[in-house]
Amino acid sequence: MSVTDERKDLPLTRYAIERASHQDRLSYAVVLSELIARSDLQQKELAEASGVTARTIRNIVQGKNVPQVDKILALMRALGVDIDEGDDLDVRPYTKMLAPVIRRIDPDHRAAAVSDAIGILSDAAVAHPDRTRVAQVTDISRRDVGGPGEDLQTVPLDGAKLAASTDNTAVDPARGEN
C-alpha cells in the first residue's frame, strides 16, 4: 500500500494525530507538504503563525524528517485545518455527559430522543445566546455587502421593493423597516 492509499483514511483530528504511529506521522508529513504547497503563506509567515521553525517546515516539505505531533498540530492549525472538529474545550464536558445517556437509549428510539434534545438545546441557544459566537456569525465586512459605500447599516431600503418582495425574512424594526 502506498502513502497515497494510506492518506485516504488518514483522519485530520487532534485525537488521531496525538495517537499517530511513526508511519502515520510520515503520512501526515505528506499531507502537510500538500497543504503548504496550496497555501498562500510563505514559509516564513507559516513559521511565525505556527511557532514551528522555517527549517523544520522545510525538512517536513522535503521529507527529510518525521514531524513530531506538536509540530503537526501547530502547522495544521496555522494552515486553517479544523483538527478539533469544532470541538470547544468548554463544551467537551457536557458532550461527555450526554454520550452515556444516549447510549442507554434503545437504538430504535435514539434518533428521535436526540432530535428532541436538540430541539430543547436549540430553544436554550435562542433564549440565551453566547454573545461571542453571535458576534462571530454576524460580523459581515463592508466589502461583502452592496455596492461601493454601502453596508447593512447605511444601504437605503426601497419600501415598494420590500412590499413587492416574496422574501419572508424578518426586517429590522429598530431601523423603521416594517
Question: Could you characterize the architecture of this molecule?
Answer:
The relative contact order is 0.07. This protein has helices spanning 3-7, 14-18, 22-38, 43-50, 54-61, 69-78, 92-103, 107-127, 131-138, 159-164. The chain has 178 residues and is mostly helical. The longest helix is centred in the middle third of the chain and has 21 residues, at 107-127. Helix 3 packs parallel to helix 6. Among the domains are: 3-78, 434 Repressor (Amino-terminal Domain) (Orthogonal Bundle), CATH 1.10.260; 92-137.
Please identify the oligomeric state: single chain
What is the CA-CA span between the terminal residues? 63 Å
* Overall pLDDT score: 78
Class by helix and strand content? mainly alpha
The proportion of residues in beta strands is under 5%
Helicity level, as a percent range?
Answer: 55-70%
**Count of β-strands:** 0
Number of helices: 10
CATH-derived architecture of the domain at 3-78: Orthogonal Bundle
